[in-house]
Structure formats: structure tokens, C-alpha cells
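re: ur msg from earlier - yeah i can do the s-citryldethia Coenzyme A complex, just paste it... oh wait u already did. ok heres what im feeding in:
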Amino acid sequence: MSTTGVSAKVTLGEKTAEFPLLTGTLGQDVLDIRRIAADLDVFTFDPGYGETAACESKITFIDGEKGVLLHRGYPIEQLAERATFPEVAYLLLYGELPDKAKSAEFEQVIKSHTLLHEQIRNFFNGFRRDAHPMAIMCGTVGGLSAFYHDGIDISNEASRELSALRLIAKIPTIAAWAYKYTVGEPFVYPRNDLTYAENFLSMMFAKPSEPYVVNPVLARAMDRILILHADHEQNASTSTVRLAGSTGANPFACIAAGIAALWGPAHGGANEAVLKMLAEIGHRDNIPAFIEKVKDKNSGVRLMGFGHRVYKNFDPRAKIMQATCHEVLNELGIKDDPLLDLAVELERIAVEDEYFVKRKLYPNVDFYSGIILKAMGIPTSMFTVLFAVARTTGWISQWKEMIEEPGQRIGRPRQLYTGSPRRDIPASL
Ligand code: SDX
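and the outut:
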């Protein structure tokens, strides 16, 4: 971050103050208003922080107008095509893509942490079999600090790194076991002879009673889906992780907070909501009526998988996801998948409809991901869990960056109070 020599002068009544314009590598410059309360005795007002840079970061850059997504400077299109998820995880965590030797070493370290403490198996038994897997994720990840005490001293770099590696390694095991628990099948242990994506598919679909061979096309698709969901600047769940982390809470508790925030249908829960929406529409003949319902504000119905707070032309991840969707369906020999046909027709109609064009609403990362995951045999209730598996890498990288930032302080937004003025309790009460 550097100063531009430019500043904004604000005059409020008798008071005048100047706020310097700071600039970064790419994207919007920022007005440094850290002294605004001291100089002008006012707060800024930005509900939802849509126009607020809450931090400085070097990890991910998004240009919403141009549909650009960079991780440590590398375009998502190149990473999705040429990197593996562990290599992207290494990039997010350490800032550079690993060479072959570092990549092999990192994957080996991750593999050495894929097992859970055996007693953690008991966590699952405390849930009803019909519990939503995201509830199991929140509870189990939040409880990890009770087992991994040597990873919660956040002042110690080795401890921070150990917790980061443990979380990246263990989150697929917890996710797959959450699924197995809800379907009443035995847990499948991690296999260190498999890649990260292959191992997740194995823990999800293998059975102790028969051999399991991972389909390489599905494994590659899973690896790419994990890459596309790995990190995304200061979205709601990442901001939750940063805010929780700013209090000094242990990294496992912070990631559990991120999982809870991601669960909402406006955020990571959208991929599950897209499938429910497509099922509700049922047939392409019903699309026009559904679109009319979406346009009716009183209906409270939104086109799930459409729109984005930042992307206002297209979500680059959605384009890659759509291509992956066709690859997976072809590999599985699924011709004319009714859901995909419906989604493609819905997108065609929506992107030509003035209502959506005017509001810059286009498919986001969640619009096609659910169709791929469903075709891969992953139940709808596991879609957001998969999102959390991938985003754990982004969350913990952002958490580590924040903790290691010099002068890091507890986050504490203010408010505009519009409640009752001071009053005394009536004597009659
Ligand atoms: C993710 O932040 C991230 O980076 C998130 C994410 C990540 O990787 O972390 O990219 C992942 O969360 C993707 C988004 C998944 N959510 C959905 O698909 C749910 C459906 N989309 C929306 O609810 C909505 O688009 C949001 C939440 C994504 C964005 O909401 P905004 O920016 O607050 O938009 P808004 O609510 O201010 O809407 C602006 C207008 C409104 O209409 P008007 O009041 O101007 O008439 O657009 C309308 C909204 O009603 N609108 C929609 C709509 N999204 C916005 N109308 C119908 N369908 C939609 N999906």
C-alpha cells in the first residue's frame, strides 16, 4: 500500500479534514478514513460493507466489471487449467506456486494430517442421522481445538502453520464422514496413495466391502471445483473468519465461524438452493412463470445462482464451471440431462431479460456447480459442505495473513443509533 499524494478534503460545519488516497497494486484506490471520528466526530455509514475496504490483502484480487479473479496474481482460468488444488492451496498459503519438489513435499505433509483423532468419531454419534451435514461440520470443526492444543498458540508461527495444514488436511475427512454418517455407511479412512481430490471421492463413495477405483475424469473435475471455490477476497464468510480471528480466537473456532456464515443461501448455500429451484421449476415450459415470480418483489423469490455483489458482467468461475459440467456429463454418458437443459434455458432467458440485464445479474459460481455435483452422485445437502472444504484453504490463508499483519487490532465496527433517547424507568413499573 502506498500514498498517492492526493487527498479528499471534507468540510462539516466548522470542521475540515483531509483523508489521504491510498493505492495498491490493482483495483480501486481507498480513502484512508481511519481518523474521521477524531477529526470530524462522525462515522462512515456502509451497511454490509459493500463500499468498504476492511483490510489490506495480497491473496486474491477481483475485478467485478472485467470478470477478473487472480490468486496471488495468477488468473483463475490458468490455475483451473494447469494447477492442482494442493498447488493452489500452497499458493494461497505461501504466496508462490510450488516447484515440483515443494509440491510433492507439501502434498506429503498434507497427507500426514488427513486422519482425525479417533475420539472425534464420537462427535458424529451425537448428531441425529438426518442432521444437515453443515451442522456436523460446524460442530466438529469448532471442537477440533479440544484435540489439537499444539496448534492454538496463534503467537507462534510454527503453531499457526501446523493448524493451517491440519485444517486443510482434515476438512475433507470430516466432510466425507459427515456424509457417511447421514447415510448410515461406515466411515472410510483417508488413503495416502491418492491425491487430495481422489481421496475425498474415495472417502465419500468407497465401501469397506468392495474395492473402489476413482474415475480420473471425476477426480480432475473435483480438483477443479475445489480450485474454483478456494478463495474469493473478502466475501461474507472470509470476513467472518477475519473478524473472529481478530479477537485472538483459535483457528479452528474461526474456521467453524466461516462454515456457519457460508451456510446461508445468499452465500455458499446457493448451490444447494439452485438445485431446489430447478426442481421447483421442473420443466422449461414453467420458466416464464417462474421468472415473473422472481420479478415480483412481494414473492421473495430470487433466481438462485444469479447475481453477485462484486461481479457485474460475469463470474469467471461460472464459465469454467459450465465447461466442466459438460465434461463430467459426457464422461458419465449423461445425454440431455434435464437439469442441465433447464439451467441452460433458464440462463438463456434470464440473460436476455431486461430485468436481469438492468440489474447486472448473471450466473455466479453456484449456478452450474450443483448440476456437476449431482451428476457425480453427491447429494444436494453436501454441496455447501464441498464449498466449505475448498474455502477452508482460502479462509485459513486469509486468517494467517491477518494474524501476521503488523499492528493487527480487534475488529469493532460502529453503528448509527436510531433507538430510544435516554429515559428513566417509570416509578410505576
Ligand atoms: C457466493 O461475495 C462473494 O465473493 C461470494 C462468493 C464467494 O465465492 O465467496 O462468490 C459465493 O456467495 C455467490 C453468490 C451466491 N448467492 C446466490 O446465488 C443467491 C442469489 N443471489 C442474490 O441473493 C444476490 O445476487 C447476492 C446476495 C449474491 C448479491 O446481492 P447484492 O449485491 O446485495 O444485490 P442486491 O440484493 O443489492 O440486489 C440488487 C438488485 C435488487 O433489485 P432492486 O432492489 O434494485 O430492484 O438485484 C436484485 C435485487 O432484488 N437481485 C436479484 C438477485 N440478486 C439481486 N433478483 C433476483 N434474483 C437474484 N438472484
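cool cool. The radius of gyration is 23 Å. ping me if u need the other ligands too
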